[in-house]
Amino acid sequence: MSDIAVFDGHNDTLLRLYGPASRRELSFLVRQDEGHNDLPRAVEGHFAGGFYAVFVPSPSRPGAFTALEVKFTESGYEVPMEGAIDPNYALHAAFAMTAGLLQLEHDSAGRVRVVRAKADLDICLREDVHAMVLHFEGAEPIDADLNALHTFFRVGLRSLGIVWSRPNIFGHGVPFTFPHSPDAGPGLTPAGHALVKACNELGVQIDLSHLTEKGFWDVSRLSNAPLVATHSAMFELCPSPRNLTDKQLDAIRDSGGIVGINFHVGFLHEKGSLDPNAPLSEIVRHIEYAVGRMGIDHVGFGSDFDGATVPRELGDVSGWPRLIAALRARGFDDAALRKLARENWARVIHATWKD
Ligand SMILES: [Zn+2]
Fold first, then answer.
1. What sign results for the dihedral spanned by CA atoms 252, 242, 277, 135?
2. Considering the domain boundaries, does residue 1 fall inside one?
3. How far away, in angstroms, is 268 Cα from ligand 1 center?
4. Using CA atoms, how far apart are residues 256 and 90, in angstroms rounded to an integer?
5. Residue 25 Cα to ligand 1 middle (Å)
6. How much distance in Å is there from the Cα of 260 to the middle of ligand 1?
7. Cα of 308 from ligand 1 centre, angstroms
8. What is the CATH number of the domain that holds 231?
9. Which of 77, 119, 289, 352 is the most buried (most CB within 10 A)?
10. How many domains are there within the chain?
C-alpha cells in the first residue's frame, strides 16, 4: 500500500458537520460510521488536508447535493435549477460553518490547523497536521460592497467559488442537466468583475467549478492568478455541464493552473450514470485524460467527499491509497503521484496567495 500524502481540492465536510441539516453532536475528531471524512479515517488514508467548503444549501433543501431531485429523460436526466438564495440566510449559515471549523481546530489540540499562509501549509504537509483551507462554494454570503469578503479573509478565507449551480449577484452557475454543454448561461455581472479584482488583490484563489463557460472566460480574461477548478472532470469523457471542455483545460494549463478531478460518479461515467458501483478506474480514466491534455503539472484531486456519490470501491478518505495504487498500476511513478496527490496544489497555492 502507498503512503503518499494527499491534499484535496474540495470536500463538503463542513456542511455535513455544521450545515443547516447537520447533527451537531458528530465530531470530526472521532471516527464516524457515516459520511466520507473524519480525522481517524483521514489519518488511515494519508489524507493530509484540503479545501474545506462552506456551501450554503437552499433553505428548502438543507441537506447535501445528493439530495437534489433527478428527473430521468431519454438521453440522461434533468435536475431543476436552483434559484438564488437569500444573502442573509447564506451569511448566517456561513457563520455557523466557519465557527464550526474554528472550534474544531481549537478542540483538536494541534492535530488540525486552519491554514492561512503558505508556510502553514508546508508545515502541515511536513508534520502530519491536518490542513484545512477555508473555501466558500458560492459567494452568496458576500455582499456587493465586499465587506464580508474582507472580514472572512481575516478569519481565514483563502479560496472562493464565485457561484454554485445557481445565480447570485456575481454570476451564474451551470445546471446538472445531462447531457449539456457548460455554456449554459450568462457570464459574470459587474459585481462579479469587482469580486475577481478584489480576490486577486487579497490573494484569494478563485474557483471556476460550477461557473458557466461565459463566466469561466470572464475570469480567464480578468484574473492575474493561475486558473483553478477545484472539483471538475472531463467533458470529453462525460458531457456534464459541470465538466471542462478541452479549450477550458488548455486555458487552465496555459495559466499555470490546476484541475482537481471530481470523484462524483455522475461526472465520470460517459452516460452520466449515478450508480455508486462505478469502478475506481472511472476516476483513473479522467485523470489520465487530464494529464494527456494538460501535462502532469496541472492535475490534482478534487474529491467532493461528503458532497457527492463517489465510487463504492473508493469508499471514503481512508480509500485514497486504493486510488494511488490504481494510478501506480497504470504507470504513474512516485514523482508523478506526488504531483497529482499534493505538489501541484501546493504550487498553485504558493503562486496565488500573497503570504
Ligand atoms: Zn460542488
1. positive
2. no
3. 14
4. 32
5. 25
6. 11
7. 8
8. 3.20.20.140
9. 352
10. 1
Specify if 297 maps to a domain.
yes
What is the CA(15)–ligand 1 centre distance, in A?
12
On whether residue 78 sits in a domain, the answer given is: yes
DSSP state of 140: T
CB atoms within 10 A of CB 322: 17
Full pLDDT tens readout for the chain, 355 residues:
458 999 999 999 999 999 998 877 789 999 999 999 999 999 999 999 999 999 999 988 887 666 678 899 988 999 888 899 999 999 999 999 999 999 999 999 999 999 999 999 999 999 999 999 999 999 999 999 999 999 999 999 999 999 999 999 999 999 999 999 999 999 999 999 999 999 999 999 999 999 999 999 999 999 999 999 999 999 999 999 999 999 999 999 999 999 999 999 999 999 999 999 999 999 999 999 999 999 999 999 999 999 999 999 999 999 999 999 999 999 999 999 999 999 999 999 999 999 9
On whether the pTM is more than 0.85, the answer is yes
Domain span including residue 58: 6-352
In-domain check, residue 112: yes
CB-count exposure of residue 83 (10 Å: 0-12, 13-18, 19+): exposed
Cα 47 to ligand 1 centre (Å): 19
